[in-house]
Amino acid sequence: xxxxxxxxxxxxxxxxxxxxxxxxxxxxxxxxxxxxxxxxxxxxxxxxxxxxxxxxxxxxxxxxxxxxxxxxxxxxxxxxxxxxxxxxxxxxxxxxxxxxxxxxxxxxxxxxxxxxxxxxxxxxxxxxxxxxxxxxxxxxxxxxxxxxxxxxxxxxxxxxxxxxxxxxx
Length: 169
What we know:
CATH architecture: 2-Layer Sandwich
Largest sheet: 5 strands, mixed
Strand content: 15-25%
Distance between the termini: 36 Å
Helix content: 40-55%
């Protein structure tokens, strides 16, 4: 990240779930023939957790063959392509002028990245102590890596992996 784009965490906003519902309905309308499910993921999906002020949304498509058509629809609606992420057939898009901004990930069914996000989200939703530990880690890392979003994100990986391992046991 550049100096003009610092890591910014804001307190939990109770309007985030409402915004997600509105955005999900819009995306379902746009991508109806291709969508299996649309999930609110990331820190904004966990009640009480501070987060970057944008919604992370996973869209699971019927299959890998639907990615090009879904991509064209998103591009036509001013979603900025961010590439294939995580080496796991996850394509990212940003809509910066949305309220709140949207970071959309499209992926095929049975996608490991998507499955891990759901496991992590659900565990933090049902384990307040883990959510509190994650919140503290995020605050520390945001201060330490204020102008390095990549290191901020990478430094959370061990915690996320530990939570997912715990949830799967």
